[in-house]
Structures are given as C-alpha cells and as structure tokens.
Amino acid sequence: MSNPQEGAAVSGNKKKHPGGIIGAVRETAQPLANSLGLILWDVRFFKEGADWIVLLVIDKEKDASPVDEDAPPGVTLNDCEALSRAIDPLLDEADFIDRSYRLQVSSPGLERKLRTQNHLNAYLGEKVFIRLQRAFEGKREYHGILANLDGASFTLELPDGRGLTCTLPEVAWIKADDFQSWDHLQR
C-alpha cells in the first residue's frame, strides 16, 4: 500500500476538471494572477525525475511600471512568491491533482517559448527564432519577424526580406528572439 506523503499517486475521490489538471490549475490561477497585476503566460504539469511539477509561468505587461520604484521591470521574485503563496492553499483545497507535486512559479525568461495561439498573437510583429521539424533550404533554424498569423500557419519575415510561411506542425518550436539585432527589421 502506498503512502501519499511519500509522493505516491493518490487514487480515489479526487475532483475531475473537464480541462484536466492544467485546465483546473489555469482556472484557479488566472484570477489570482490578474489580481496581482500579472499575466498567466503558461501552465505546465510534467514529471521531472521522480517528482511531478506544477509550473506557473507569469509575466507582466511590457509597459507596466514596477510598484516599487527601485524594483527592476518585469517579473520579480516577490511576484513569484506572491502568486505561489496565494494559490498553494487553493490548490490543496480544490484537491484535483491525484499525486504529490511541487509548485513552481517563474517568469518566462529570455527566449521564451511561444506555445499557444495567444503567445503568437502577443509576438506578432516581434523578433522570433524558430526550429523546423525538417530542414528547408539546408537549414532548420531561422530568425525573423513574426509577420503574419493565419490559423495554423504563420509567415516569418527573414532578414534578407523574404517571407517563410510555415504551418505549426512543421515547427519544432518558436521562441522569442531576444538576442538578435536587426534594426532594419524592427517596426
């Protein structure tokens, strides 16, 4: 017989959510993030080694000024801690995660992965870095401006001015491109 305190999965009467664990966590975290002036960028539930992780990735509006004038712009450790403290008892009370887990709250960081349609919409007109599933013209990785979104496809404006149109299934990942400098491509 498993002891739940040792990290074994707990079975029985856990509450089910139509969106699964990620949907339930997102539904619980979204209003808390909003009330703290944060954007809930992503929610992930995954196994890392022997541990299950609930990861909340938070951000702030690009033009948001810090509450504390001495604080750096963007997400701070205090923001992560505030959301963690606010959501932790609610997740325990809601009881929809059927195993022990560690709660982590972090910023998206540099070169954040763009995993959802909302992420892509937020980066329309911005510099991105993509890796294709298969090479195109001998390359798998491209930098450019996310120039157009059309359902499951997008166009990347390359530094040489050409457009590369891809469907989302053709792409291994898309990241914010925080390190390239192409002044001639900036909007």
Inertia-based shape: globular
Question: Strands of the largest sheet, in order across it?
Answer: 7-6-5-4-8
Secondary structural class? alpha+beta
**Regions with little confidence, pLDDT below 50 for 5+ residues:** 1-12
What is the helix fraction of residues, given as a range? 10-25%
CATH architectural name of the largest domain: 2-Layer Sandwich
Give the topology string: H per helix, E per strand. HEEHEHEEEEE
C-alpha Rg, in Å?
A: 20 Å
Number of helices: 3
Identify the CATH homologous superfamily of the largest domain.
RimP-like superfamily, N-terminal
Number of structurally distinct domains: 2
Regarding quaternary structure, what we see is single chain
Give the strand content: 25-35%
CATH topology (level 3) name of the largest domain? GMP Synthetase, Chain A, domain 3
Task: Describe the overall structure.
The protein is α+β, with helices and mostly antiparallel strands and 187 residues long. The protein has two domains: 4-106, GMP Synthetase, Chain A, domain 3, CATH 3.30.300; 117-185, SH3 type barrels. The chain is built from three helices and eight strands; from the N terminus they run αββαβαβββββ. The chain has helices at residues 20-35, 77-94, 117-122; strands at 39-48, 51-59, 102-106, 127-136, 139-150, 153-157, 163-167, 171-176. It has a five-stranded antiparallel beta sheet with strand order 7-6-5-4-8, with no helix packed on it. The chain has a three-stranded mixed beta sheet with strand order 1-2-3. A hairpin with a 2-residue loop joins strand 1 (39-48) and strand 2 (51-59). Helix 1 (20-35) crosses helix 2. The model is unreliable at 1-12 (pLDDT under 50).
